[in-house]
Amino acid sequence: MSILVTGGAGYIGSHTIVCLLEKGEDVVVIDNYDNSSPEALRRVMQLTGKEFKVYEGDVCDRDLVERIMRENNVESVIHFAGHKAVGESVEKPLKYYKNNLISTLSLLDAMLAAGVNRLIFSSSATVYYKEDTVPLTEDERLGCINPYGWTKFMNEQIIRDACQANPSLSCVLLRYFNPVGAHPSGMIGEDPSGIPNNLMPYICQTAVGLRDHLTVFGNDYKTHDGTGVRDYLHVCDLAEGHAKAVSFARGRTGCEAINLGTGTGYSVLDIVKAFEKANGVKINYVIGPRRPGDLDENYSDPSKAERLLGWKATRTIEDMCRDGWNWQSKNPRGYRA
Ligand code: NAD
Ligand code: UFG
């Protein structure tokens, strides 16, 4: 029996595969390398000393996905595959709706045909309504402000409805907050294409000299130092959350949405200072205007994950900064080097 990991060559997928293999699970991967490199999977094999089957293909190809499930005796699916750049989704909404929705529809269709009942879906804190109060519980009102967010919202609804209609299905919608950092080995990590949109990869690229300086997007928010507050989460903690979600899904049916975050918020300047302290490097930064659509603060109430999955983040902000920098300094140009 094996777990099918869609988008397994990506940032979160590659870390999750390491965690699953270490727990003795068998995995099979499908990825079209739209936003990743086969090198990531080669390194996962090197790191764990374990081999697994990899299919280069598109999750929107329903028949291929069904064949993979049958050929590999798949019992659960973790669905990471999707486009994730918020800004690009505003410019090219159809690209996002097409890939992110059709991949999930094809996957569910193939699962039903092949008799695979368990699905763990990568959702996001972006599904929460902008005015919701923090800390965010899973019961808060939902609503999005960009096409990427709406694809997560719609996928959640599609999966909920599929569970309703098919009582043998067991699905978990994991709402991630801000995943950062890398495997402590420095062999795998986040490898954004082009200029990073997110804070931590931008800081890492500034530290390594690929960017001249970080622009802090606004210092007039209603937070302790005026800069935006987020719930940063070590990618290895996030990976363990997926392993726990697979075990949870095995023992039940139905659909649950679960936050994965630490429950603690850090500001942009907190992160800059923590990064400088953990790594003994200086980050040049300037204060710039606010980025449209950004919130003052966004952090989770992670108690449902502890209650249902027995999962709690254990890694500190220092771990996130140290491991992120270890990856970046060993791989200044990511997997391309
Ligand atoms: P990523 O881009 O590194 O990984 C996604 C992988 O999916 C890539 O390897 C890409 O090539 C592949 N892919 C995309 N479309 C595909 C398709 N149709 N068929 C096959 N492969 C396809 O992204 P990530 O950061 O690892 O994120 C994984 C998932 O988690 C995504 O769904 C993302 O939206 C979600 N998520 C990410 C974050 C974050 O901050 N990184 C936060 C919340 C949710
Ligand atoms: N920031 C900067 N400068 C930068 C980049 C970011 O000051 O160059 C700030 C932002 O304004 C924000 C904080 O750093 O205050 C975090 O920004 P990120 O872009 O790293 O993360 P977001 O919380 O804005 O977005 C992330 C994911 C989205 C997801 C969202 C859901 O990138 O995909 O969380 O909460 F939708």
Average of the residue pLDDT scores: 97
Regarding CATH, which class of the domain at 2-181 and 231-263 and 298-314? Alpha Beta
Name the strands of the widest sheet in spatial order: 3-2-1-4-5-6-11
Total number of β-strand segments? 14
Percent of residues in beta strands?
Answer: 15-25%
Tell me what you see in this structure.
With 337 residues, the protein is α/β, with parallel strands linked by helices. The protein has a domain at 2-181 and 231-263 and 298-314: NAD(P)-binding Rossmann-like Domain (Rossmann fold, 3-Layer(aba) Sandwich). Helix content is 41%, strand content 18%. The model has no long low-confidence stretch (mean pLDDT 97). The structure holds nicotinamide-adenine-dinucleotide and uridine-5'-diphosphate-4-deoxy-4-fluoro-alpha-D-galactose.
Keywords:
single chain, 337 residues, alpha/beta, Rossmann fold, 7-stranded parallel β-sheet, 3-stranded mixed β-sheet, 11 helices, 14 strands, globular, binds nicotinamide-adenine-dinucleotide, binds uridine-5'-diphosphate-4-deoxy-4-fluoro-alpha-D-galactose
Summarize this entry quickly.
Helices cover 41% and strands 18% of the residues. With 337 residues, it is of the alpha/beta class. The longest helix is centred in the N-terminal third of the chain and has 22 residues, at 93-114.
